[in-house]
Amino acid sequence: MNSYTAYLSSKNEYTTFSFNGTTLTFLTSKNLERYTKVKMWDNGYGKKQVKT
Predict the structure, then answer these.
(1) Contact, 33 vs 50, CB < 8 A?
(2) CA 28 to chain centre
(3) Continuous H helices in 1-52
(4) What mean pLDDT comes out for the span 1-16?
(5) Are the C-beta atoms of 13 and 28 separated by less than 8 Å?
(6) Residue 17 CB contacts under 8 Å (≥ 6 apart), including other chains
(7) pTM for the whole thing?
(8) Cα–Cα distance between 19 and 38 in angstroms, integer?
(9) 38-43-48-52 Cα dihedral, nearest 10 degrees
(10) Across 5-52, where does the E strand assignment appear?
């Protein structure tokens, strides 16, 4: 897996998001069939977030 490519997939009621060696799986709608496009990507993954 290329570390600069993010992968988004769905199966049943779960969505899997993989990026830079980390995979997140979360519950989504049972009616979701597939993802067709990314509407917004802010390139914020992997950056430190500072609480103010």
Answers:
(1) no
(2) 12
(3) none
(4) 79
(5) yes
(6) 6, 7, 8, 23, 24, 25, 26
(7) 0.57
(8) 14
(9) -80
(10) 7-11, 14-19, 22-27
